Every structure is written in structure tokens, then in C-alpha cells.
Amino acid sequence: MKMNNCARNKQLKEEIQKLKKDRRAVVLSHYYQRPEIQEVADFVGDSLELSRQAAQTDAEVIVFCGVHFMAESAAILSPDKIVVLPEENAGCPMADMITAIDLQRWKESFPGATVVCYVNTSAEVKAQSDIACTSANAVKVVNALPPAENILFVPDQNLGNYVARQTGRRIHVWEGYCPAHAGLTREEMLAARQEHPGALVLVHPECRPEVVELADRVASTSGILRFARESTAQEFIIGTEAGILYQLSKQCPGKEFYPASPKMICPKMKATTLEKLHRALETCAPRVTVPPDVRERALRSLERMLAII
Ligand code: 13P
Ligand code: SF4
Q1: pTM of the model as a whole
Q2: Do residues 241 and 259 touch, judged by C-beta distance below 8 A?
């Protein structure tokens, strides 16, 4: 007899817990993952917290429930560990908007410039950059650079322009964007505000400037969670990927959260399922590795970032 979904998920979750022990594996999940993945993970966090976990863990295997660049960062920071990405096609579309060759050519037009790369980039792009940042520390990273420095920011134009406004620094931005965040329009945000007039508006800096302008608070995923927990407000409109709504409801019981748009879903983040995680733990595959020469140079960008925060 065929098992129903609920019973199948329960069985998968139990087996995943057992496999984690057998493999001496740690399961890391980004806040944008499906709720059932966040439930079985050992650690759920934003890009910055997850890189710290990846650098510190003493597990033998890191199973990364996120997108490819996150698993690559784990492989860069923990070269002696086996790093597994349960869905091998989970690439970040924004990270794919710049290649190492694109960056090399762009740098030639700005000799001597400092390249700040959003962590949402390939290992090769990190290897061509001077320092990495995440949405949680981008302003701090740029503020730590000498004032006269000419700055190139890749690949997210919205985050880069937000950092330029916050720091008053002149920053040349690559024209990449996150489809899940940049798809949110000002009209949608205005409609959400009209529908929930008492709610505070919290948005991620990957959103367009005309949306960011309407926000009560602009923050990374962990910043949005912290703000919602600490605020005395009871209702919030959320301008980031829908996966965070699970954590918001869990961490802030009794408060109400409304997505700014039902379209804010990243299909690549949702590609990891319990079935795929189970298979990944069973087989320790698909593995993510980084060639040693690329790793060595990419590590410098990540370590410079981790030293600042
Ligand atoms: P943060 O976890 O840094 O807020 O990341 C947002 C994001 O788009 C990750 O892909
Ligand atoms: Fe990339 Fe945006 Fe998806 Fe994050 S939410 S993985 S930035 S496409």
C-alpha cells in the first residue's frame, strides 16, 4: 500500500536523523529553504551565519541545504570536509550573472580598484575579488575600506547601490539582480501597505530602491528576524523570500506576517526536498569541491570578510 505524504515525511525525517549520526554529518539550512528542511537541519541561518558554521563545525560531512555558492563557500572554508549539495542544479541565478572572465575584463577598466563581491558569487569570482560580504555585513565591509579606494561591487546592483547610499561611498555596481527580490514592485508594496495599514514594512536590500524607500526597516534575513522579535509591533509586511515566514512565525508567536507579494519565491532554494536530503546523506553526493588554486585565492576574500565582523 502507498504511504501518504505525511507518513512518508515522518519516516524520512526519522531516517535523516539516524543518517546524520551514522555519517557524522551536520545539516545546514538557509532561511529560504522549505519548512520541513529547516525542521530537520542542525543549524538554520543567513548566508553569514552559515559561513561561520561551515568554518567552525567538527562534523566530517557538511550537507548544505541552500544554493551552490553556499556549498562552495563551505568547501573553501573547510577543505578537509566532504561538502554535499542535495540538489546539484540549485544554482543562484544572481551568482550566475557574472563570470570570472566578466570580472577580469571589468577590472581592466578600473586599474587599482578594490573588488567587493557579494557572497552570492562563484568561487572563481571570489578568487578574483579583494573581499567578500553578505547582506548582513556589506555596509560594515565597505566602511572598513580606506576612504580613497575606488570600489567595484559584484554582482547585485540593488545591494551595491543600497550600500553606496548608506556609506556615502562612490561604488561602481555590476548590473546583476535577484529575480525573487527585484521582481517585487513599488505598486505591490503600496497595495500591501493599503491592505495592512497597521503593519511595519521589512525588506531585504536585494529589493529595488523604489521598494527599499517604502520600508520601515531594511535588513538581511537575520536582521529581519531580529527586528520582528524585538519590535513591539504586532504586524509586519515582509519583502523577502517566502521561506523566512516559517522562522518568523516560529520565533514570534502571536505576531502576524504578510508576504509583500506571493511571487517572492526562489525556485532554486525550494529545489531541496526531504527525499533529496535523505539521498544526499545516504550517498554523500552530489559533492561540491573547489580546485586548490581557486580555493586559496577565494579563501582570502572570505577570510578578510570574516575578520571584519
Ligand atoms: P541573506 O541570508 O544574506 O540575507 O541572503 C539572502 C539571499 O538571497 C541568499 O541567497
Ligand atoms: Fe539567488 Fe535570489 Fe535565490 Fe538568493 S533568493 S539564491 S539571491 S536567486
Answers
A1: 0.95
A2: no
Residue 309 has pLDDT above 90, yes or no: no
Are 142 and 167 a contacting pair, CB within 8 Å? yes
Instruction: Give the whole-angstrom CA distance, residue 6 versus residue 183.
Output: 33
Query: What does the angle CA 145 – CA 212 – CA 118 come to, to the nearest 5 degrees?
Result: 40
Q: What is the CATH number of domain 180-259?
A: 3.40.50.10800
CATH topology of domain 5-90+269-289: Rossmann fold (3.40.50)
Distance (Å) from CA 263 to ligand 2 centroid: 13
Q: Report pLDDT digits (tens) over 160-181.
A: 999 999 999 999 999 999 999 9
User: Fold for domain 95-177?
Assistant: Rossmann fold (3.40.50)
Of 260, 265, 225, 220, the closest CA to residue 118 belongs to 220
283: Cα separation from own chain's centroid: 26
Residue 94, ligand 2, Cβ within 6 A: yes
Q: Which atom of ligand 1 is nearest to the CA of 119?
A: 3
Scored b (16 or more CB within 10 A) or e, 87-117 reads bbebbbbbbbbbbbebbeebbeeeeeebbbb
> Grid cell 536582521 — which residue?
223
